[in-house]
Amino acid sequence: MPRYGFSGEPADMRKLVLLVCRTIGEPVDGRELIRLALIDENSDYFLFADALSALLENGLLERKGEAVCLSAKGEETAAVTERSLPAALRRAVAEESAAARERQLRGRCVSADAFENKGAAIFSGTLTDGAELLLELTLQAGGMKQAAALKRRFEKDAERILQRIWEVMTEA
């Protein structure tokens, strides 16, 4: 893990968590928040856990189901305190947060399920652009193992599957 100049101090970890939440700009799930807060080799989970607890207790962060986001008070505090963190750390957080936002958006746009219906194994998947449905696909599979494999493949390659369907359907 690289070093970006994080001090390892509890106050700096609170600032870093606020920065991560502000940079992502939307509720972030716990695993992603941990990954981003531990971006520097000098940080550790226990420091993160203490900072997260303190920020939630002080009302700077709010829980939204499994996710965490900034409160209005947290947004103000993050705007004031983020400059005290090293520039290299802020840059690394910005880059990683952009990738996290993309993953979260894709997670909301792609959904798939494998289930049984009247004794038949069924795969069902949808792909949206965030607002409009682009693809809705339901297939009967040879068994639950195959339906589960279709689900995993769709979750991984939904955009490519849509592209291939378009290519086949528009072939002259």
Q: Which labels suit this protein?
A:
single chain, 172 residues, 3-stranded antiparallel β-sheet, 6 strands, elongated
Question: Would you write up a description of this structure?
Answer:
This protein is 56% helix and 21% strand. The protein has 172 residues and is an alpha+beta fold. The strands form two sheets. Strands 1-3-2 form a three-stranded antiparallel sheet. Strands 4-5-6 form a three-stranded antiparallel sheet. Strand 5 and strand 6 form a beta hairpin. Helix 1 crosses helix 3 and helix 1 crosses helix 4. The model has no long low-confidence stretch (mean pLDDT 94).
Q: What is the chain-wise order of helices and strands?
A: HEHHEEHHEEEH
- List low-confidence stretches: none
Content-based structural category: alpha+beta
Per DSSP, the total helix count is: 6
- Strand percent estimate: 15-25%
Radius of gyration: 21 Å
Spatial gap, N to C terminus: 51 Å
The number of E-state strands comes to 6
Biggest sheet features? 3 strands, antiparallel
| Spatial strand order of the main sheet | 1-3-2
Shape: elongated
Oligomer: single chain
Helix fraction?
55-70%
Mean pLDDT: 94
